């Protein structure tokens, strides 16, 4: 899991190598424009808060819930291939939004990882479950990945 920490207009990155948060993820977010838009969104949403963290979760969900504060955001890179149909549903006091990324590593995602990202915005304290439903373009299989968060 990677986290981007915002504090009073100063931006720094915290990277931890906890493998349980990205066991199936093989790609990393390298789209500078998308990252910048997330940073600006976090800055606007936090207002006068002391700081916010953007948790970047790649691939399959972890076994333990991600602990975050109400000012924090989470961005999920679902483990899906390009052309997959992805839907999102949030249970609890949070909103989950699905976004398209136009380019990954400078190229259009015709093959490889899907160009969808899920942004999770907590609106209250408590447990939050985000269900990401993925329908593969190559088969009729549907998988549901459940990401859990604990907002304090």
Task: Describe this protein's structure.
With 152 residues, the chain is mainly β. It has one domain: Immunoglobulin-like. The protein contains 1 helix and 10 strands, in the order E-E-H-E-E-E-E-E-E-E-E. The chain has a 6-stranded mixed β-sheet, with helices on one face. Strands 4-10-9-6 form a 4-stranded mixed β-sheet, with no helix packed on it. The two termini are 19 Å apart. About 16% of the residues have low confidence.
Describe how the helices and strands are arranged.
Elements: E1 2-7, E2 10-15, H1 32-46, E3 52-58, E4 66-68, E5 73-77, E6 85-91, E7 94-100, E8 116-122, E9 126-135, E10 142-151
Parallel strand pairs: 3-5, 4-10
Antiparallel strand pairs: 1-2, 1-3, 5-8, 6-9, 7-8, 9-10
Measured between the Cα atoms of the first and last residue, the distance is: 19 Å
Structural category: mainly beta
Question: What's the multimeric state?
Answer: single chain
**How large a portion of the residues is in β-strands, by DSSP E?**
35-45%
Query: Would you report the number of β strands?
Result: 10
In short:
This protein has one helix at 32-46; strands at residues 2-7, 10-15, 52-58, 66-68, 73-77, 85-91, 94-100, 116-122, 126-135, 142-151.
């Amino acid at each position: 899991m990677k986290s981007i920490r915002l504090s009073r207009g100063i931006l720094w990155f915290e990277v931890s190598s906890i493998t349980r948060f990205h066991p199936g993820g093989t790609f990393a977010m390298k789209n500078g424009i998308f990252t910048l838009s997330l940073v600006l969104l976090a800055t606007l949403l936090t207002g006068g808060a002391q700081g916010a963290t953007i948790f970047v979760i790649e691939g399959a969900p972890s076994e333990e819930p991600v602990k975050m504060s109400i000012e924090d955001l989470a961005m999920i890179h679902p483990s899906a291939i390009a052309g997959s149909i992805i839907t999102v549903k949030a249970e609890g006091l949070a909103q989950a939004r699905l976004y398209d990324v136009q380019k990954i590593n400078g190229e259009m995602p015709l093959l490889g990882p899907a160009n969808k990202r899920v942004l999770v915005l907590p609106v209250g304290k408590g447990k939050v479950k985000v269900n990401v439903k993925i329908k593969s373009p190559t088969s009729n299989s549907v998988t549901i990945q459940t990401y859990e968060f604990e907002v304090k």
